[in-house]
Specification:
Largest sheet: none
CATH architecture: Orthogonal Bundle
Protein name: DUF1244 domain-containing protein
Pfam families: DUF1244
Number of strands: 0
Radius of gyration: 15 Å
CATH superfamily: SMc04008-like
Distance between the termini: 36 Å
Shape: globular
Oligomer: single chain
Number of domains: 1
Length: 104
């Protein structure tokens, strides 16, 4: 095994553990709270996943990428776990967005 292969396998394992943590161990953590605190959420991970696929020449729809991250269709996961954002969450999200604007 080469160092590049080792690194890729380690990164893939870490990514799978992150997904398992977010999807199985902490589905109660709302995406908006992740955005407020960390600047990314499960949907961002799906976008990055799709971008990585495109970089390798693999076509993937937004829905396919979200299903890969959520482990099921996004609408199904959302209905089971996502709650409407509170006014406090929306205000905190706006404050965080202005304090740390995303690049590009």
């Amino acid at each position: 095994m080469t160092q590049t292969t080792d690194t890729t396998e380690i990164e893939a394992a870490a990514f799978r553990r992150l997904l398992a943590h977010l999807m199985q161990e902490r589905p109660d953590v709302q995406n908006i709270d992740l955005m407020i605190l960390a600047g990314f959420c499960r949907n961002c991970l799906a976008d990055w996943y799709r971008d990585a696929a495109a970089g390798l020449g693999v076509e993937m729809s937004r829905d396919q990428a979200r299903a890969a991250v959520y482990g099921k269709p996004f609408a199904e996961w959302k209905a089971e776990h996502q709650k409407p954002a509170t006014p406090e969450q929306l205000a905190a999200f706006e404050a965080a967005r202005h304090a740390h604007p995303q690049d590009g």
